[in-house]
Target: FAD binding domain
Amino acid sequence: MMLGLLLARGGVDVVVLEKHGDFLRDFRGDTVHPSTLDILRQIGLLDAFLRIPHRREQTIAIRFADGTIDLGDFRGLQPFDYLALAPQWDFLDLLADAARACPNFSLRMRSEATGLLHDANGRVSGVQAHDVDGELEINADLVIACDGRGSILRDAAGLAVETFGAPMDVLWFRLPRLATDPDQTQGIPARGRLLVMLDRNDYWQCAYLIAKGSDALVRAHPLQTFRDLVAPLLPFAPARMDALQGWSEVKTLEVRIDRLQRWNVPGLLFIGDAAHAMSPIGGVGINLAIQDAVATANLLGPMLAGTAAIDDTQLARVQHRRLWPTQVIQGVQRIAQARVIAPLLDNTAAGGLLRAPALLRFASRFLAFRHLPARLFGYGIRRERVQFGARG
Ligand SMILES: Cc1cc2nc3c(=O)[nH]c(=O)nc-3n(C[C@H](O)[C@H](O)[C@H](O)COP(=O)(O)OP(=O)(O)OC[C@H]3O[C@@H](n4cnc5c(N)ncnc54)[C@H](O)[C@@H]3O)c2cc1C
Model:
């Protein structure tokens, strides 16, 4: 959506396909980091974004048995000393509305790309799709696949994927939030378990990590077993888990980290999770996808807005620019998975909250240490500046 907006504002004819009828899905995550806030400022949408009901988190806390530690700390960082938590459907609606103001932009909801079209030379020349009226073909000078970690266009293009694995999947559910509850997004590690609670003002969005592939096993037990596992981790009365009435209220989100070895073929480019699926660690995947979009618009926008034929050799410049930041963030996510999450979940005997490691407790006294995750995930590496399509 961000790329569609930038290209359309720059004068490129854009069609965006979205297979769903709306953006109202919970699993999209809602962290909008300073890197994205800054992009919104550059394209004149920051004020409108900040009018969306959102929370500002200045610190991300980890709650241990012996007290809470602020691991990520945005205080003192400029120009944004917080990360925003905003429902992604509102964020996407904002971008879509801004893009619709361009007469050369079209957003086709309930339109699913199902395959690729090729010209006589084998170059990708569009997509096959279906919408409510049936099958259709959409021709394009360039197809940009942003269809997420389950990308079917990846398969259609037959590109090689490097898979790094993930030790966990996530059970995603809501709990009611009371005025007396703590008001901070927090991670709560315990022996064999990890709960992350996102404060969404009137409710808690909870992510409970389970060992990869163990979903069926967990669900084979009565819901009460799950309630009993999670309840001791809550920072308030365990009875709140009774609000969960059935397994249907618990969604399973598959976690994976992978990366295409090559992000483009003639006529087709991959960005975002379709090029590099991100783990939820650091809540950074949305922000990285936005950076990809800005880089793509900067690098390819002028060519797409021109009248000359597309030079396919230019497509590789996007991967060239975005590969390194992606590798670094995925590398950090893989280390966190291997060193922290896998050992935690391997411990099959569920037990009480963990005590904070002494070194972590010591290091967290220093603001510079607490700034590290905020800088790495919040501000990112090789931050993009909008050079194409900033204004309509
Ligand atoms: C459990 C979990 C929690 C996460 N939490 C966060 C978080 O809090 N913050 C964060 O920054 N990142 C988070 N991430 C990572 C984040 O979700 C992704 O990195 C990010 O959404 C990638 O954005 P994208 O636009 O590339 O893909 P997506 O957000 O997946 O968007 C792809 C879009 O394409 C549509 N689509 C798919 N296939 C087709 C098709 N064939 N035709 C038409 N449309 C199609 C989909 O409906 C979707 O709207 C999380 C990941 C997981 C697994």
User: Anything to note?
Assistant: The chain has two domains: 2-52+87-163+256-339, 59-81+168-211+213-254+347-382. The two ends are 15 Å apart (CA to CA).
